[in-house]
Amino acid sequence: MINTKNWDWGIQNKVLADIAEIKSRYQDVHEFVVSPDGEKIAAPVVLEDDTFTACVNNDQWPDTFEKLWYLRFSPGNKLTALVMSDDEWTLAVDGRVYEENYEYAWDVRFSENGESISMLYKRDNLYGVALNGKPWANGFVAIRDYCLSPDGKRTAATVQVKTLDEADVFGFFAGAWSVAVDGKVWPEKFINAWKPAFSKDGSLVAAEIRTDICEYSVAVNGKSWEKKYGSVWDPVFRPGNGSVIAAVKEGSNWFLAENGSRIWGRNYNQIWLPKLSPDGKRIAAVASPEFGKWTIAVDDRPWAKLFDDMVLAPVFSPDGKRVAAIVKENNHWSIAVDGKTWPESYDMIWDPVFSPCGKNVVAKAEKNGRYAVVLNGKNIGTNYDALWPPIFSPDGDKILLRYIADGKYYREVRPLN
Amino acid sequence: MYEFVRGPLVWLAFIVFILGSIYRLLQIRSQLKKDKVVFSYMNFKYGMRSILHWITPFGAVNMRKRPAFTIMSFLFHFCLIITPIFLLGHNLVWYESWGIHWWTLPERITNIMTIIVVAAGFIFALRRIADPTVRLVTAFSDFLLLLIVLAPFITGLFAYYQAFDYKTMITLHILSGCLWLMIIPFTRIVHMIFFGISRAYMGSEFGYVRHAKDW
Amino acid sequence: MKLIDSPESKVVDPGLDETIKKLTPEKIKRVVDHVLTKENAGRLQMYIDTCVHCGLCAEACHTYLSRDKDPNFSPVAKVKNTLWELVKQKGDVSPEFIRQAARIAFTECGACRRCSMYCPFGIDIAYLIMIVRRICSLLGVVPQYLQDTTNSHAATSNQMWVHQDEWIDTLQWQEEEAGFEIPGVRIPLEKEGADVMYSVIAPEPKILAQLLGNMAMIMKVAGIDWTMPATDGWDNSNMAMYSGDFEIMGRVERLHWETAARLKVKKIVMGECGHAFRGAVYDGPKWLGWKFPPIPMVHAIEFYYDLIKSGRIKIKEKYKEPVTIQDPCNTVRGRGLGDKLRYVVNELCEDFTDVSPNQEHNYCCMAGGGTINCGPPWKKSRMISNRVKAEQLAATGAKIVITPCHNCHSGIEDIIGYYNLGMHVKFINEILVETMERPE
Fold first, then answer.
1. Exposed site from A101, A322, A360, C434, fewest CB < 10 Å?
2. Is B132–C41 a contact, with Cβ atoms under 8 angstroms apart?
3. Where are the domains of chain A?
4. What residue segments make up the domains of chain C, in order of their start?
């Protein structure tokens, strides 16, 4: 989690940039991004000579590039972008480029604590992960899903470990995929491996694996669960111990298993995205108790309210007592907290955010092309041209709003009550 | 023998037909429930739209492509169902046994209708032999089923015209009629019961789900 | 049961020939039993019990018509030669029988569903063929090239082994190319909160990249707020659906929908592809548990229709060459978009002659349903199986066949070549960028 204690939590509403003015300054201005602390707004901009750079508040990075995209702020408020010069790609952080260049680099990610930055790269036709500018010692013929450990010290990715000729279906089924951790590949090969995930301390990696045409399981540090299933989704570690929970399919039923043993007794038509409460004691997951109906199941009890369209990943409150999720019905989006849907629905809604005490839930929402801040189902700020997800202060008494209105970018800290 | 077929066997036939049909309906309902999507997509409007198109002569493209077959097939099925229900002789039996009676068709008409059923049935059989496409997918059981379906009509005709020994013929007539009733739920003649369900599902999938026509 | 002896039965395909060597009677029986009793229920039983072997489905099938009414090519015969036998023998069949079933189900039926419009009972014969494919898939007996495509979906979430960097790089390159045509054109990647996510099938970045540039121009001219993902989940195609690997099918579709949800778009617009529409809107959601797609999905035909009808795109000068249409099964019979397709073509082209039969009744291209993905060994058989398509197209006298579907596009191109029709195929996309009014 990022530390928000040092941010400016004084009640205020300040204008940090004139958006209209920025747009008038450049040939083209791409999508704006804002820093988590709200102090900076930035965008990739195109200069008159068709080169790119990043504009930050009223400044711009000194260097220009042939291409610049994927401008993103890290949780620690560093501004990063993928940049190309002389046909080579690398990452620029706060305007300074990494020393290592690549044939291609993409999919930049940040560790939870905001300390580490990683990305995928291709060099000499081999693929790997670069962590804080350092590429893996070994490259692979292909790379796909990857992740960073919560402390930002390690990286893991699904990789293809042997070259296959065109249409070599036999080589494929003999097993050509595995997981590489910090560039070192597991000795075990699988038909497929997907979605690697680290344990809290970074010592274990779990991944979905496929061991036969229709035989799936979970591997932890290379070792498959003994039990095999008809399909598997989303392995995740239980905080506190090294055990892994995943959604699995047996026959036509889905349920949750932990370390290869069934832990949820109810049969679901579908279940995925199991999430654990911070203390690791409770589990919530997106579940379909019957065909065409979706909800959240918490500790194997589905909410009474079912939704037709879609339900997104559950979010636990910091104390683990409450669960919220984005829900969709009749092509309208809303948020449900502990099975109760907010009264209004929206054209689009962003992830629910719990206050530190768990009492309040806030989200960014869109209606008719305008954006609103919704707190516990009530609009507390509306009609913004653009808005970024609201953030609670550490004590939960205040809320940080970052928005564009009347052509200007505002950073507002507002008391709650 | 006549007494047996005229009494207990008819009872048995109707009981087997009715209970068998109910059993098949319940059984297919539970099977269709396991097939998760079926009841979820079933839609009254589009189901009916499809059924109506397909019980209307020339209501579907395929029917228009083969007019002679279409006319024959509709006549066959129409006469097959209507004739026994509105036949004077059957009505008299109902009246004799239960004191109930309803509207009857003139015997001249039912005679023609019976002949149509038998003639169409024979053409169906011939088609199974003559058309290589149909022959390939025809099993011996297809002829057997056709024979069971036609038997009451043939024997009925013979009985009516007293062509052979009447008593024997009428016994055979009742016997075959009962057999016919009894096998409906348990053979491919079950299409009589399932037609509405399979048609309604396809109509729903085409109309309600895929926004398209299915005729 | 006697196996069919024909030129097709002698085609060499390691995906069938090598894989049946590993089959044991026990394995075949186990898989058949599992699929017939555990994975399928009501419809299978209803359809088997209801079919009266009347053969009225025969003339619906382009393979039957094209092969001078060869009885083995009628839809019901394809079921008889595969599924009926599996049901009757309760899975006690030989590996060679499984090979025959795979050949019929994968290469001689495109699951186009035309025959279900000719069956008086509405029996979904393509569904029965898909059950056979499922059995073959679980036994590992799938034509090599089709299996390879499914393997690509499994490993990369796209159809053609496209690496993630190749995908993004291609979009950036096409953005540049389109920018030369219309200044300021962008392909906005990873734009959270855009109205539209545009998704395509892997042959676009791999071999037909200009279609992406074309779409960027169309989006620019129409003023659409759109985005494309720079992660996996961009490919809406799904050959796993056709090879019978429903677990991989579901995996691919889940990622596609989750990508749209992650990007916070209000709808997905997809390129000109038919089977991808089927996978994303019907088969994928159904397997995953959605009755309907979780987020609205608009096929390109409908998207162009809306743009032209609403005046967001105006046509400067109509296309002059005589054109005709290939109605894609999965968007016309599968979505009723035939009228909208004709509206678009009439708005874009001066000289349009319709095919006959048309709309829901149009013949399949014999490339869809995974058939073209079975690869070169089966091409000749596919061509022989669609002579009626060649005759139908030739009768229009058109020079251009508009094919708003990738499989149709490749399939019709093959037919034009094989039967020397002297025509060309085009996507709507290509004619639209040529004819639309561009900003000054």
1. C434
2. no
3. 1-101, 111-224
4. 8-142, 160-305, 316-435
